[in-house]
Amino acid sequence: MMEKISKSLLTRQSKAPLFDVLSARAKRNVISFHCPGHKNGRSVDRELKDYTGEEVYKFDVTVFDEVDSLHDPVGPIKKAQKLMAQAYGVKHSLFLVNGTSVGNMAMFLAACDSGDSIIVSRSSHKSIMAGIIMSGVWPIWIQPKIDQNLDLVFNSTYEQVKDALDKYPESKAVFVTSPTYNGVVTELGKIVDLCHRRGKIVLVDEAHGAHLMFNKNLPESAVVAGADLCVQSTHKILSAMSQGSVLHFNSSLIDFNRVKKIVSMLQTTSPNYLILASLDLARRQAFLRGGENFDAVIEAAEWGRSYINNNISSMKCFTRREIQELGFDLDVTKLTVNVTKTGLSGYEIEAILAKEYNIQLDYADLFNLVAIMGEGSIKSDVETFVSALENINKEYHGEQKNWVLKIPSLGTEMVLRPREVFLSNNTKKIGLKKAVGHIAAQTLTPYPPGIPIIIPGERITKEICDYLIDMSSKDIRISGQETEMLRTVKVFTN
Ligand SMILES: Cc1ncc(COP(=O)(O)O)c(C=O)c1O
Asked: Which of 100, 266, 362 to mutate to test the pocket of ligand 1 (most atoms within 8 A of CB)?
């Protein structure tokens, strides 16, 4: 990307207007009669200040003219958002201070009216259930494909989206997650073309892809593919502070004023300016140095991947080529390490890494470890990680388990909209064994694979009931269960 950039664009992108205003203000030691109560950090606990230093609290201000308002920006926040939009090549970008979670909710509310249908993969982040409930849409679920050789759940494919659109031509929009937690990117360009030809809106959860835009060796970003709305966790892989995300708008099918109003409705009126300034700086850093920074991260990740595959007999990382052969692409900066041959679960190895090696992973499940690399990752960290895995490989030898990653068929009937059931008091708990034929009034999600097995408003089939009974008899975590053991399920009673 960097080769084509004009000098004037580089000069503009070298600026960080929000950070500049906040840092200049911090130097002036302004007497504060505004929130927050710590007054430029004066009353912040000494123990905390000993760790953080004093200066950072001068960035923790409230809304006034000089620093601008997130809800109605006219000054430095407006300029910083404009630079963000320019960096990503979209019409508008909105800063978020409650992560991609709030962006996902906003996308549903912005694209759909109550009663509309939207095509969405069942393997989406939990915030999309919030978006579905808040907006009152009918979800049309795509059942994700599972690869039992790789123990991996995929995002929606072009064919799956096309089938769903053919079957439900009334759908207003398609919601896609890309990349997945494991870095798998779907054929977004083809999906966007198809949807736009049919007048459908494309919403993309690109929580894990804010960096894709800035390095030519990474898969194509949703903003390049032409998504109408796309939300990115700038804090996940780039260098923004946690909670710092961005919602990109690039649509002729959605009214931008509606998007702005919804985002404003969902966000705090006291945004943390340190998060906002970090978005401004993360954009500048990625635009100016993302190419070279991510070249180094890619090299370190690929080194780790190949070392594990060539030297650690009981572990395996899938490669970009393997994923491409399956019709997807891979952001190679994410290292998914399959550990099923060690005889230990991913959870167990994650705990060993934390306790014995001082290494904390982002995620593990029965089958895999997921090591997430970001703009701050360096090769020596990967070397330490890989050497810890090598030791674990030598020290632990268990029996290989017969775990299989599978889910029942989820093509069940949606009888009521999730919102209607969620807001209703007409629910009761019944024994799991008696649940067949009832309408679910709760979400139950076994981990792995982290795919909701029942959703409020959906008819419970015998296959789903048997699966839940089987899960509850094993050591499988089921998110959403309200009692210690899963023996009952909440259903709708009319
Ligand atoms: C695919 C996906 N979408 C959305 C989110 C939520 O993002 P955030 O933590 O920025 O709210 C996550 C978080 O892990 C995620 O993995």
From this structure: 100
* 102, 123, 125, 185, best to mutate for ligand 1 pocket (most atoms within 8 Å of CB): 125
Q: Which atom of ligand 1 is nearest to the CA of 243?
A: 10
Q: Are residues 140 and 225 in the same domain?
A: yes
Domain match, 129 and 256 both: yes
**What distance lies between CA 427 and its chain's CA centroid?**
31
Print the domain residue range for 52.
Answer: 16-67
Give me ligand 1 centre to Cα 100, in Å. 5
Question: Do 294 and 246 share a structural domain?
Answer: no
Ligand 1 atom nearest the C-alpha of 177 is: 1
Considering the domain architecture, whether residues 63 and 158 belong to the same structural domain is answered as no
Partners of residue 445 on adjacent β-strands: 479
CA 125 / ligand 1 centre spacing (Å): 6
Q: Are 169 and 308 members of one domain?
A: no
Q: What is the mean pLDDT of residues 59-64?
A: 96
On the question of pLDDT at 430 being above 80, the answer is yes
Closest atom, ligand 1, to C-alpha of 233:
10
Q: What is the pLDDT of residues 62-116, one digit of tens each?
A: 999 999 999 999 999 999 999 999 999 999 999 999 999 999 999 999 999 999 9
Question: Count of domains in the chain?
Answer: 4
Q: What is the tens place of the pLDDT at every residue in 155-181?
A: 999 999 999 999 999 999 999 999 999
pLDDT at residue 1 is higher than 70: no
Quick check: pTM over 0.85?
A: yes
Residue 411 lies in a domain: no
**Which atom belonging to ligand 1 lies closest to the Cα atom of 103?**
11
> 494 CA distance to ligand 1 centroid (A)?
34
- Please answer whether residues 8 and 82 qualify as being in contact, where contact means their C-beta atoms are separated by less than 8 angstroms: no
Tokens of 125: 């982040």
pLDDT digit string, tens, across residues 268-326? 999 999 999 999 999 999 999 999 999 999 999 999 999 999 999 999 999 999 999 99
CATH label of the domain that carries residue 427: 3.90.100.10
End position of a domain, from candidates 234, 268, 302: 268
CA of 210 to the centre of ligand 1 (A): 12
Task: For residues 103 and 152, state if they share a domain.
Answer: yes
Residues 255 and 307 in one domain: no
366-378 mean pLDDT = 96
Q: Which residues line ligand 1 (CB under 6 A)?
A: 99-101, 125, 127, 177, 181, 205, 207, 233, 245
Percent of the chain at pLDDT > 90 equals 88
Reply yes or no on whether the pLDDT at 265 is more than 70: yes
CATH of the domain at 351: 3.90.1150.10
**What size, in residues, is the chain?**
494
Angle at CA of residue 20, ends 16 and 21, nearest 5°: 125
pLDDT of 231 higher than 60: yes
Strand ranges inside 17-163, DSSP E = 92-96, 117-121, 138-142, 146-147, 152-153
Residues with Cβ within 8 Å of residue 274, at least 6 apart in sequence: 56, 59, 60, 241
- Is the peptide bond preceding residue 219 cis, with omega within 30 degrees of 0? no
Same domain assignment for residues 96 and 216: yes
In a domain, 8, yes or no: no
**Dihedrals φ, ψ of 8, to 5°?**
-65, -35
Encoded tokens for 173: 């929009």
